[in-house]
Amino acid sequence: MILMVYVRVLKLLRVHMMMVDFYILVIDKTPNRSYGQFIQHHNINGFITEKYNGEIKNIPRYDLTNIFSTEDRGYSVVTGNYIVGQDVAQWVVNANFITNDGQSRGEFEIYTLPQPNGSTITTFSLISCGIAFELYGYSCLLYQNSPTENIFTNLNFISTGAVIQTQNFQVSQLTFNTKLYDAINLFHGGYVIVVSEPNNDINGYAYSNDGIFNRSWALPTNYTYTSKIFGVSHDNTVWAVADENNAVVTNQWTSVFSTALKSFSTVKGDTGYGSSSILSTSPGINATIPSGTKQTIMINYTMNVGPSTGSIIISQKNPNGGDDFIRTRMPANNPNNPQFISIDGSTVKVSLEDYTFDRGNAAYIIKIDDDFVEANGQNLIGGSWDVFTVPDSGTNEQGKLF
Fold first, then answer.
1. Residues 134, 137: Cα–Cα separation, whole Å
2. Is the CB of residue 156 less than 8 Å from the CB of residue 138?
3. CB-side exposure of 35: number of CA atoms within 13 Å?
4. Could you tell me which of 39, 120, 182, 386 has the fewest CB atoms within 10 Å of its CB?
């Protein structure tokens, strides 16, 4: 008998032609049978079909379970548990991984917190987990609450289960009068720590992964947000739905936003590509290049890399605002055409044919998949940048698509 069901819809992995992927985890809490059954679904034009299913063993607590999508279109299920041993009790956090084709790996022990006799910790929470945009791999934010102190732990790990680093810090905005409500992983590194005030209103505060306070999220103070409906977009714009009593018209929602965190980034070596791992490229961001000739793209990473399962994609931007036109898609690991992509240490060389940039006075976007290359068994976050061809050049009419 299933006593507890835990369901979470992850962020969309693909949205194209009305296709959406989502994931369901069901936890069986029957005594002596604590496991999770995962089911991956496609939603294509309103018709839901199962893609794969499987099982993850040893998920003892649904309240200490966090699910997030990984950069290679898979998933990770992170679980916590309190284990009482003969000599000492301890909190333990484990990570499991599910690949895009339904294979599972783990469980990997990524954190332990011994609890000696007389310990006064009253709360242990797995607040937030996701891709570690500031570094590589993944990060989880843990929270320990006791009568004397509140401690956050930022935990960085990779898909092999290896832990890169941990950092403990405190949040000064958490006092005896306030409570932790939530925390959100930001897309440029760091977190927004959301605190509930005595009047049930909320405020958010940006912290780096090692606990350095930046600033508040600066939502308009002439509204209240006790409904606690809020979020953060990819560019760190914070949005929230104000309470109904703030609305100008009865029964009307008021949506507000703040751009105060758009410049906040903890990405190490951020050079404008949206990835902490890309050091530089040639051609560079917004470079002007000739058209109708063979081109070479050089991508310099901050570490030695190897090929993974993703691709580099070059598209011509549609000047009319429609879909961009894909000129080429090249997988990093292509045994049939190894001459097009070569890797030497930390440098990737991509050789292109003359038709790739064959239009003059046109804008192109170069996009690297999140699983294009890997380091130490961990896929690295990709990136993208624009380049432009010289006006009045090229073998086709300028600025036009096929």
1. 9
2. yes
3. 9
4. 120
Cis peptide before 109, with omega less than 30 degrees from 0?
A: no
- Rounded Cα–Cα distance for residues 93 and 83 (Å): 11
How far apart CA 289 and CA 357 sit, in angstroms, is: 9
Tell me, yes or no, if the pTM score tops 0.70. Answer: yes
**Main-chain phi, psi angles of 245, to 5 degrees:** -70, -5
Across 259-353, where does the E strand assignment appear?
278-282, 287-289, 296-301, 306-307, 311-316, 325-331, 341-344, 347-351
**C-alpha angle with apex 148: 142 to 149, nearest 5 degrees?**
30
Tell me how far apart the alpha carbons of residues 20 and 22 are, in angstroms, rounded to a whole number: 7
Q: Is 389 in contact with 359 (CB distance < 8 Å)?
A: yes
Does residue 298 sit in helix, strand or coil? strand
Residues pairing with 242 in the sheet: 254
**Whole-number pLDDT of residue 345:** 96
| Joined tokens for residue 41 | 């679904």
Q: What is the DSSP pairing of strand 19-30 with strand 15-16?
A: antiparallel
Closest CA to 176 of 152, 195, 157, 156: 195
pLDDT band at 37 (very low <50, low <70, confident <90, very high): low
CA torsion through residues 260, 382, 55, 42, sign: positive
Identify the structural domains of the chain with CATH numbers, from first to last: 1-140+151-169 (no CATH), 171-268 (no CATH), 278-389 (2.60.40.1220)
pLDDT digits over 89-142, tens only? 888 999 999 887 778 887 899 999 888 766 666 788 999 999 998 888 999 999
Cα–Cα dist 48/379, whole Å: 29
Q: What integer is the mean pLDDT of 374-392?
A: 90
Q: Are 142 and 93 in contact (CB under 8 A)?
A: yes
Provide mean pLDDT across the span 315-325.
88
